[in-house]
Amino acid sequence: MKKLLASALAVAVLSAAALPGATALAQQATSSVTPIDGIAAVVDEDVILKTELDRAVNNILAQYAGRENQLPPRDVLERQVLERLILVKLQVARAQGTGVRVTDQEVDQAIGGIAAQNRVTPEQLRQQLANEGTSYADFRTSIRDELLIQRLRQRFAQSRVSVSEAEVDAAMSAQANAGVQYHLAHILVALPEGATPEQIATAQRKIEGVKGLLDRGEMDFAAAAVRYSDSPNALEGGDLGWRSNDEIPTAFASMMRSMTPGQVTTPIRGPSGFQLVKLVETRDASQAAPTMVTEYQARHILIRVEDPAEDAKAKAKAETLQARLMGGADFATLAQENSQDQSSAAKGGELGWFTRDQFGPDFGSAVAGLQPGQVSAPVRTPAGYHLVKLEDTRQSDMGDKNRRAQVQETIGRRKMEDEWNRFLREMRGEAFVDVRVGKAAEAAPAPAATPDGPPAPPPGRPHGPPPNRQGG
Fold it and tell me: Do 295 and 288 form a contact (C-beta atoms < 8 A)?
């Protein structure tokens, strides 16, 4: 069941710019433990309960069953998982504070997509959750939170990330000449904004200590990432997946071309801190699997909102039309009579074939959550309220016409990762966070660097182990 929830959530909730840690967070609901009163952390005006932390930690332990030696000690693992939960709380609060909303109907659609992906009905999925001792309310909350975070990321990308035509031209030229893709993993020792010389020196000693462990063969890279990395993907062994040249930061790209699989870079200072990058393997891009994209064929009815004061009226009209459709009214006829999209109304709302985000992320998310023949609830976009009927889907290999768009998206995703991680660090640094667990360990003075392994993390970082040659 844990595997079912992990794969389903990845399909139903995450978009192309995947949210680090989302699958593990959604899986919190998959482990049943005896409730224990207590607060693990206070995050601004919210709290993380000890029972929430226990569920999340136990889920990680279940994922690593038989490989427990790859995990850090329990107290360190708790701090890593708690940091993820803190970031989720902060992102959800920021999304809600900036007006991002997710309706009950949208949550229902996401859960319906999870059920459909796993070939069960929503009721069967609910029963499976109950059989595992999972609270359905907690599961819905996890889905809602991930949708909120996804939309916050989308807004962030639209406001802060841009890709020039010159960048796309250069990337396409490099891609055509190189033809190599790299499977990478990394370990990050993070630095806060405006790090002091002492913090920089401590972080550098730590990353050098980790490199020493790897060079001496005392620990493999994935285990070291789980134990020592400050990156959100630490619990996944630091795996970054396959990257082409245009997806690799400039600081690493030239190094990758001179490395052989299995090699690890020397410590490199980047915008987020110090990193080690491992080249896992390479492949010829021409031998990679075809780049397939899902295309959608749909109709829509648009009720425009040109004045914010008319929002409620427009939504009410859209809901009335939705009720008529649920009662059996013909979608094309209602579109011809009511849609305020002049380009499609005469065609019964027909939009033809399009890719997921061609009409914007909110519209794309709604379409991706539908099954053929299904009609959405009213979807709010900058243009107004839409009712969308999905007609069909198909998989298409991206031709030359679309490859430019793909390259542009790839560059944007790389920029987004850098900007988003910087934004998370800023948000974390500005928040009031009172950690109530592991107080004694955190109050202890940081040990000095020793030949036996890396020292404690930079001041202010909540996770990162003391020196330990035995691997926990």
Answer: no
Instruction: Say which residue the tokens 């290999």 belong to.
Output: 397
Half-sphere exposure of 198 (CA within 13 A, CB side): 5
User: Which CATH number is associated with domain 176-289+412-443?
Assistant: 3.10.50.40
Other CB atoms within 10 Å distance of the CB of residue 15: 16
From CA 313, how far away is CA 303, in angstroms rounded? Answer: 10
All structural domains of the chain with their residue ranges:
2-160, 176-289+412-443, 292-397
Tens-digit pLDDT profile for residues 36-68: 458 999 999 899 999 889 888 888 888 788 877
Q: Give the strands of the sheet with 239-244, arranged side by side.
A: 239-244, 180-190, 273-284, 268-270
Structure tokens belonging to residue 61: 């332990």
**Beta-carbon contacts of residue 84 (< 8 Å; ≥ 6 apart):** 21, 24, 25, 56, 232
State the fold for domain 292-397: Chitinase A; domain 3 (3.10.50)
Question: What 3-state class would DSSP assign to 24?
Answer: helix
Structure tokens at 405: 């768009």
Q: What is the pTM of this model?
A: 0.54
CATH number of 2-160: 1.10.4030.10
Report helix, strand or coil for 213. helix
